[in-house]
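Forwarding the complex inputs:
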Amino acid sequence: MQTAKIDLLETYLSLYINHFEVLNHMDTKDSPYVILDVRNAPSAVKKDQIKGALAIPAKDLPSKVNELNKEKTYVAYDWTSGTILGKQALLILLKAGFKAYELGGALEGWKGMKLPIETLNE
Amino acid sequence: MQTAKIDLLETYLSLYINHFEVLNHMDTKDSPYVILDVRNAPSAVKKDQIKGALAIPAKDLPSKVNELNKEKTYVAYDWTSGTILGKQALLILLKAGFKAYELGGALEGWKGMKLPIETLNE
Amino acid sequence: MQTAKIDLLETYLSLYINHFEVLNHMDTKDSPYVILDVRNAPSAVKKDQIKGALAIPAKDLPSKVNELNKEKTYVAYDWTSGTILGKQALLILLKAGFKAYELGGALEGWKGMKLPIETLNE
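Prediction (whole assembly, three chains):
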C-alpha cells in the first residue's frame, strides 16, 4: 500500500506546476509558459485574470487545441482547485501531445498570494 | 510518465459528474439522478441544500446504502471539493454496486453559479 | 473501469486522516500524532495554526525530515486542500519511511468546524 500511495502522489503531483516557476518566467521574453485561463464564464463574470493569460474556456478547448504552439508549455487554471475544469483541460492538452500542467492553487491561490493579475474589459 | 498522467486524469475525472448534466434533469419526471447530500452536520448548520437533494450524512451511509435504488445514479456532494467526504461516500456507493459520481465543484461551486437550492427547516 | 475507480478512491483516501481521529488524541499524553504545519509563509502571514502543530514549511522539509521521530505519525496540512503543498510534504515523509497523512479539509476545514487553534506571535 505504501508503494501505491507513493506512486499516486508522484503521478498526481506531476500534473501540477508551482506558481513560483511560472512567476519566474512571467515577464521574460520567450517564456516557455503560456498561462491558460479555462474558466467557462464571460469576461463580465470573470472580471480579471492572471496577467498575460490566454483565455480559452474549457468547453472550447477541443476545437481550439490545434491552434496552440507545441513549443510552449501550457499552464491551465480555473477559479479554484476544487473544480474539475483544470484537469479536463489538462487531459485534452496532454492527449493532443502538448506539454501542459495545472496551476497549483488555481486562480484563488494566485490571488491569495497577491500575484500579478489584470482587469478584463467587457 | 505521460501515459501514467493520462490514465490518472481519465480515472480521476470519471469519478465526477458535471453540474450541467445534473441540472438538465433536475425538474424532469423520472430523472436518472438522485443528488445526495453527505454532509455530516445537522440541518441548523447546513441551513440549505441543493434543491431536491436526499440528505444522508456520510457517517450514516454504510447502514443506509441498502435502502437506495439501483435504478438511479447517485450524485454525492459535501460542502466543498476540499474535503474527503464526497469520495468516501462515492467509494461506499460504488463498492455496493450503485452507479454514482461526485458532484464537480461540490456545494460551494453549485452556489457560486447561483444554481437552485432550498432552505432547510430545523 | 469500475475497478480502476475503486482502486483510485481507496488509494487516494488512504492518503488522508480525518480531523476527528486527530482531535481525539490531541490533548492526550503520548499522542501518536504530530500535526505538521507545512505552510510556506512567515508567522505574520500565518497568524494562527492548529493547536500544538509543529511548523516546518514544505520548502524546508527535505532538509529537516531526518530530525523527525519515526515513532510518531505525521499529519500535514496547508491553508486549504486546493494547494499541492500537503501532498508534496506527504510524499517527502512517506519516501523517508515515516508514517504520515494529509489532514482532510486542511486548515480551512479545521477552522470551519471551530476546532482548536492557537495564535502565533511574531
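Helices of chain B lie at 2-13, 19-24, 43-46, 61-64, 85-95, 106-112.
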